[in-house]
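Re: the request from the purification team.
They wanted to know what the chain is likely to look like in 3D before they choose a buffer screen. I agreed to run a prediction and write the result into the notebook, where they can find it.
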Amino acid sequence: MKKIIIAIDGYSSSGKSTMARRLAAEIGYRYIDSGAMYRAVTLYALDHGMIDAQGQPQTDAIIAALPNIDIDFKVLPDGSQRTMLNSVDVEDEIRRLRVSEAVSPVAAIAEVRHALVAKQQALGAGKGIVMDGRDIGTVVFPDAELKIFVDASAETRAMRRFKEMMDKGADVNYEDVLANVVHRDKIDTTRAESPLRRADDAISLDNSEMTLQEQHQWLVDQYKQAAQ
């Protein structure tokens, strides 16, 4: 089979990262979590006082700091990846609610998106990658051979996120997580720069009622057809 680029877009907590990571492991592709890159920039901004108490980013300060923000991925022996921010493993920290609550406004900054899109395109230059995010099939790789758009109800996505955070020992409640999901949906779909939308040639998947195995098999089937 030929090497291709697989772009998986979708709403917050729709399960796209789990799908993408598992598919990449099975077919021997590299997995790139673009959302982790925006979370890493957000974490940097939080830790350097560039986001105020109301959650509003100091845009000029963040733009000025971009040359000082290095993001990469460390692949572990088991195939899993850890997000590295300036050579520090921040994988767990970027998944916390404080980052989730601040990431959408940071990701809406045009200069942040331009910088990270350029890095994402460089990572996929040789193909053979699975990348998930909000604008992979529309902006980062508009010519990707396989584009998937994942959706599920806000309540379903919030419950998934809530359980994931509880499993990691986070002190959260479902109502806060649901409010965050709804808020992020609004920002992601209405921002001026690269809003979340389904690419015209993307295949839609509503996985609200699907098991992990069912959606994985569905995705494998789509890959086999696209890579023939």
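For the purification team: The mean pLDDT is 93.
Please add any questions underneath this entry.
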